[in-house]
Amino acid sequence: MKKLPIGFAFALVAFAAGAANPSVSDVSVTQDTSSRAVTVNYTLSDASAIITFDVTTNGVSIGESNIWAVSGDANKVVEAGPHTLVWHPDKSWPNHFLNDGSLSVAVKAWPTENPPQYLAVNLLKDGDVKYYTSAEGVPGGVTNILYKTSSILMRRIDARGKSFMMGSPADEPGRNSNAALETQHAVSFGNDYYIGVYEVTQRQWWYVTGGHKPSWHTNATCWAERPVENVSLAMIRHNKYDTNTRNKDLYYPNAPFGTSFLGLLRTKSGLAFDLPSVAQWEYACKAGHGSYKWGDGKAITLSGGAADDLEDAHFNTLARNAYNNSFDAYSGTALTTPEASRNIDATGGTAPVGSYAPNSWGLYDMHGNVWELCGDWYDAKNGFGDLPLSSDQRARVRKGGDYTRGPWRARASNQLAADAETGYLKDSDGTARRQNGIRLAITLP
Length: 445
Description:
The protein is built from seven helices and 21 strands. By secondary structure, it is mainly beta. The chain has helices spanning 89-92, 146-149, 202-209, 233-236, 261-269, 278-286, 338-342; strands spanning 3-5, 8-13, 23-32, 38-45, 49-57, 60-61, 70-72, 76-78, 81-87, 103-111, 118-122, 129-132, 151-157, 163-166, 185-188, 193-196, 371-377, 396-399, 416-417, 436-437, 441-443. It has two domains: 3-111, Sandwich (Immunoglobulin-like); 115-445, paralog of FGE (formylglycine-generating enzyme) (Alpha-Beta Complex), CATH 3.90.1580.10. Strand 5 and strand 6 (60-61) form a beta hairpin.
């Protein structure tokens, strides 16, 4: 197995304001003539960094979707010093031949404060966190079943220094009759953040918690990829054995309790996972679009009578809701027993995540399927939904609508309390509901 030098290599450095600036040098590239494996050696200096690389032939990139088969020190945080990565073109770029001198490799160092666009956490291996510079570079693509079961995939939202108009104007179709809940106001961001490409699924919850299955929908053929639901804030962030979540020591920004879902996930990944703020959630849901729009940019065109009867044909392509749910009352085929409801297949109830079209930023199920709990306290009087997360209110905000209702509730600006059906309860954060799920966030420095 002879190794020959091929082509050339060079280094790229990404800079972050106020952060240490890592640098890459001494890059060399060789290829094994038998296995065709391409080995890249490099030296990282000045600071730890996230390393990615690109491959070109005759000056043209082969595309990130063709270089996912990588081992060694790439697509992760590495410490300063000499390192090696190995690309396996026979796996990710088969039936192509690399001629001497035609191939080049660019190694890029990203400051840890300014990471690439996608982040994936392998739930089967503690501390296995990988980074990718685009959706095309995510191994297997973002719709791969791995990111719905054994890994959690996050997309970076570039929000630092940006502002957007939270809430809705008075004439937005389907606007909540309680106008305070959608009062328009400008929100500015001090940080970028990651947000989940999908809602947390039942299998992901199962891996993190060591086999806990709290969800209502239990059909054996599809439970794993369905969103986890029937979970409370006590299970998500606080002491899951104590439904009294009035312990201010566990309020954001303090760390979650160690045995909670978020506590266990933080330990496994080494990352500061949490619930998104309402502003983070709504900004990501709108995906750069303003009022009157769904997250993919299509206009909201609700029609019908009472609020829960409002329908939008395009919305059915974006989300599981009352009009494409085979056993909801709107379809006339409501199930009559709890057991039938629990065992319904994917044609009714919650849909496996990613079953519908994404929004413009590649995020799935931001509308419908399950309500998504946010970190903010709910304020029915002022309705802003972005109170200080350490304040002392009685219920959390939930966003996005669910599979039992029409689309008007799933608009980005709409919000309800976590216990809207029964009103404020003293310990409402300890209450679990089959319509409530979660989407994760990580706020960057």
